[in-house]
Write a structure and sequence with these properties.
This protein has 246 residues and is α/β, with parallel strands linked by helices. It has eleven helices and eight strands. α2 links the parallel β1 and β2. The longest helix has 26 residues.
Length: 246
């Protein structure tokens, strides 16, 4: 069905270059694929004072916090993240990990934390309303996404818009969001690489205001304009082709 749809499409929009290449590999001309990444809502994702954010969420005011947002499923890679946290925990007193999401992997992740002896550092609060996520990002020292695949990971963009640096697996659309080491660190999906990156990220002094400014520039209004321009071009070319044919 995907191949049929592509063969009958006047144009294709992809949210990332990696997905665009996958579309081209199915036979659609690569030069007719337009890459339009997702945006953020600055009214919903913007920095909150960390002290106020932690107070609102009833989190400790001291100690580093890592937040990771995603469904509790194998693809999200939490079974790599939790052991990575265990490796660096002795270096960071009070370090806590909050995994925001729900899913079939909950019991296994809880068991993994207990096995590693860090059940007092790993918390699974469940699903969090989208409008509440900015408080979690703002309260956190680092945001982490270690999935095996993502098209355009919105959670990275949203974290950055709140001024929170990220650690993410260097796969699919993540490198197109983390375009500078001033925004975060890209790693391989294995425990040692994730642990090393978290160690660096938690020890580094980040310019959170600059991070927020960068991410805040790509609003949904910017995305809508890019989409409108592309659709206008497609429609113009289509009508032109009909005129020429007639």
């Amino acid at each position: 069905m995907i191949r049929w749809t592509l063969s009958n499409a006047a144009g294709v929009i992809s949210v990332s270059n990696s997905l665009g290449k996958a579309i081209a590999d199915l036979g659609f001309p690569e030069d007719r694929v337009r890459i339009i990444g997702n945006g953020i809502d600055p009214a919903r994702f913007s920095p909150v004072d960390p002290f106020q954010a932690r107070t609102r969420l009833n989190l400790p005011q001291t100690g580093p916090i890592v937040v990771s947002v995603g469904a509790l499923i194998p693809r999200k890679g939490f079974h790599f993240l939790i052991p990575a946290l265990a490796q660096i925990a002795p270096r960071f007193p009070g370090l806590r990990l909050y995994v925001l999401g729900e899913g079939e992997y909950r019991a296994k992740l809880e068991a993994l934390a207990r096995k590693l002896g860090i059940q007092d550092r790993v918390f699974l609060p469940g699903n969090i309303p989208n409008e509440e996520l900015r408080f979690w990002y703002s309260a956190s020292t680092v945001s982490c996404l270690v999935s095996s695949r993502e098209g355009w990971p919105n959670v990275l963009q949203e974290s950055l818009a709140c001024g929170t640096p990220v650690v993410a697996t260097n796969l699919w659309g993540a490198p197109e969001v983390i375009v500078s080491p001033d925004l975060g660190l890209l790693v391989e999906q294995n425990v040692e690489a994730i642990a090393s990156a978290l160690d660096v990220a938690l020890s580094k002094s980040w310019d959170r205001a600059a991070i927020a400014r960068h991410a805040g520039e790509r609003t949904w209004e910017v995305v809508a304009k890019e989409l409108n321009d592309y659709l206008s071009t497609i429609i113009s070319n289509w009508h032109g082709g009909l005129t020429a044919a007639s």
